[in-house]
Design a protein that fits this description.
Blueprint: H1 2-36, H2 42-49, E1 51-55, E2 61-66, E3 69-74, E4 77-87, E5 104-109, E6 114-122, E7 126-131, E8 138-143
Antiparallel strand pairs: 1-2, 1-8, 2-3, 3-4, 4-5, 5-6, 6-7, 7-8
Length: about 140
């Protein structure tokens, strides 16, 4: 009986030590993974958005981004102006459907809401993004020179 109790106790101790080591290894692996997957600098991403962008699907629709202000212009008329903020990791609660592995995000802050946009492509000539949670799909723009 004492031998059985001894083996049960020994087994429990071995399991506890094994579980503790496994959890420590996972924590270290997660920390290293997070460090190696650092997000781009938000200021650089905001800089990439600057300028005028004409819609590929509607030539009368232009986005104008200056500093942290986004202007929607339709037929030459200002239709909306909002503040924007870059979230390179897409971690803001307004971006639940966005995955930074697919790009990066910027937030358009209206008077009563925040719309998250997942940027799929942004370079000196082209801007493509998806308004997360919206039904209108991907928006595509060319830089206006």
């Amino acid at each position: 009986m004492k031998k059985l109790l001894y083996f049960v106790l020994l087994f429990a101790v071995v399991q506890a030590v094994a579980c503790r080591n496994r959890n420590q290894n996972q924590a270290v692996a997660t920390e290293v993974s997070e460090q190696s997957r650092s997000a781009p600098d938000n200021n650089d991403l905001l800089e990439a958005l600057q300028g005028k962008w004409r819609s590929d699907s509607d030539s009368t629709y232009v986005l104008e981004i200056s500093d942290d202000t986004l202007r929607h212009i339709n037929n030459g008329q200002l239709s909306a102006e909002t503040a924007i903020e870059v979230d390179g990791s897409c971690i803001n609660t307004a971006c639940p459907d966005a995955d930074a592995a697919d790009g990066w995000c910027f937030l358009e802050k209206g008077q009563f809401d925040i719309q998250c946009h997942l940027v799929l492509k942004c370079n000196e000539n082209e801007l493509k993004y998806v308004a997360t949670g919206a039904a209108n799909g991907q928006l595509s723009f060319k830089k206006v020179r």
